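[SOLVED] Predicted holo structure with calcium ion

Edit: marking solved, answer below. Original request kept for reference. I posted the sequence and ligand SMILES and asked for the 3D complex as structure tokens.
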Amino acid sequence: MTYESWAAAIPFDLPEEAAVNANPDNDLFLNLMEYALGLDPLVSDSDRGPTGGLLEVGGQSYQSFTYRRPAGDQERSDLTYKGERSIDLVNWSDTGVIEESVSAPDPVSGLVTVVLRSATSVTDPALVREFLRLVVIKQ
Ligand SMILES: [Ca+2]
Ligand SMILES: [Ca+2]
């Protein structure tokens, strides 16, 4: 599936509401992210975005975040998903972000759950602060 085929199947009121950077439902997500996460671009569903937390791996705690994305015949073939990390909210890089797991598709929604985490333990004395985010790139 591509963004264009996805958007063509949605009953937007106005043509401009189908743009990747439009947000006709006024929630937290522009259409591109609605598409990327398998959300409804016409229903406010801000609570279904990525969630942050701490993940325990090998006795260490790491900042993590979890998001869901469509898979199988709903896979977004024109998108690249990337976790990025920053220590200053200015410079971002995918270095230091690990994809910890990808679940099997949920039998009802068809979405897989992806868990990303920092490579740096929260107890690392060199770590002052860090931020993680999800970036979606459309080819
Ligand atoms: Ca939206
Ligand atoms: Ca929405």
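OP edit: DSSP finds two helices and six strands in the chain. Thanks to everyone who chimed in.
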